[in-house]
Amino acid sequence: MRDTTFTYIGARIAVNGAMLARSLLLGVVSAIALAACATEAETDDAVAVEDDEVKVDTRTPEARRQYDANVAFANAYTPRCSAGAPGRPRVLVTGFGRFMSVADNATGRIVSALVPGARYPETSPPAFGEVDPPAPQLSVASSTLDLPNAGKVDVCAMILPVYWDLAAILIAKEMDAFAPSFVMMNGVAGDRQPIWIELGATNRAAKLDDGSNQLRPAAASNDEFARIIESAPRSEDARPNLLSWKAVAEAARDAIREHADDVDRGVRLEALLPGAKLAGFPRSSNTYLCNNVTYVTGYLMSHPRRQVRLLRASPPLRGKANEVRVELKTDLSTVPRVFVHWPADMATKHHRAGADVMRAILDAQLTALAEGDVPTPGDNALADPTLQGGTFF
User: Fold this and answer.
1) pLDDT per position as a tens digit, 84-97
2) Which of 199, 153, 201 is nearest to 180 (CA)?
3) Closest C-alpha to 339, from 301, 379, 389, 297
4) Residue 334, exposed/middle/buried by CB under 10 A (0-12, 13-18, 19+)?
5) What whole-number distance in Å separates Cα of residue 375 and Cα of residue 256?
6) Half-sphere exposure (CA, 13 Å, Cβ side) for 351?
7) For all residues of the chain together, what is the average pLDDT?
8) Cis (ω within 30 of 0) for the bond into 180?
9) Residue 181 neighbours by CB under 8 Å, 6+ apart
10) Nearest CA among 312, 276, 296, 304 for reference residue 201
11) What is the DSSP string of 215-256?
12) What is the topology classification, in CATH, of domain 5-387?
């Protein structure tokens, strides 16, 4: 699969007949349940709430159990990264872990190669319908890298669980404490492709199950997408990322060319990763977990001290936690941030080369900052002709 909604999240999704049938069945069951329980919000167990103020579909008992586990983990989580010497640049780098039946995620493996202390979470999915605990799927570690031009840099590396909103909440908590100079988020797309350096993100979430195979965004039955941050103004439905685009893209291409002839497990890097392209926004295909973390992270960074409601339950239950409120107290509004899509087939090979490409991107952006190359908002005019953004809402 290539540029489709099913290709993100830091995991390649093998959509087989059983999974597709299950997704269709869930859609039918959800529609029937909604019609049959139209007055449920008025019962003693539920809390009245506006239709557009919900986010995660928690109508089944299995979904609610998974939701409760995710909310409890989000609320209890405390930042783990620490900075080194005062005044030293700090970067936050994220990747994803396993997804459904896919045990190896290229971005989690590459982040672990960049910062070995962030061990890739070796976990297995539970039996269908059981809670998939988020804690074992998170790996966070601090390290110091010595980059060719930027010098010593403190790194907070995160390998995230592939869960709606939860991944973004964990990033926000680390950002607020770590105060990074640059945020680089990563996920996968097609099996073999150039890296896509995303120019922006959109306030849209596809109604697809996340890595727990239990939770999906809630939206009206006739709506293809749900809004990620309902309180965001329509003028911010499409939000640019912030980067020194030329410097970063050129550094990424140079690093990829350096490793083009590297062979790992009988495959040349160039066969997997043939270059780097700037990707336009919005793209209707980019509405899954990668876009979820990109949009929330960018929105929070651009609006310090503005509280947003994430991981909201549909329906909310009286006496239960039904949302997580998040804000950044640290002003990161001018800090560069970007999302990069990688080839999924790098899950089992070329991790060291991928880590070198990441180093090159980090080095290029931090050096650009030091030299006064002010990051600019992503502009579709920069996008590769094969990855043009447009309007779909």
Assistant:
1) 889 999 999 999 99
2) 153
3) 297
4) exposed
5) 23
6) 18
7) 87
8) no
9) 89, 90, 91, 335, 366, 369
10) 296
11) --B---TT-SEE-SSTTS-GGGSEEE-EE-HHHHHHHHHHHH
12) Aminopeptidase (3.40.630)
Q: What is the pLDDT of residues 6-64, one digit of tens each?
A: 444 333 333 333 333 333 333 333 332 322 222 223 333 444 334 444 489 999 999 99
Stretches where the chain sits below pLDDT 50 are: 1-54
pLDDT of 249-272, one tens digit each?
999 999 999 999 999 999 999 999
Token pair belonging to 135: 């804690």
Residue 107 has which token pair?
Answer: 């971005």
Query: What are the tokens at 280?
Result: 């336009």
| Coil vs helix vs strand at 209 | coil
Whether the ω angle into residue 315 lies within 30 degrees of 0, i.e. cis, is yes
Q: What letter represents residue 133's amino acid?
A: P
Beta bridge partners of 202: 238
Q: Rounded to an integer, what distance in angstroms lies between the CA atom of residue 321 and that of residue 209?
A: 21
Cα–Cα nearest to 191, from 375, 386, 14: 14
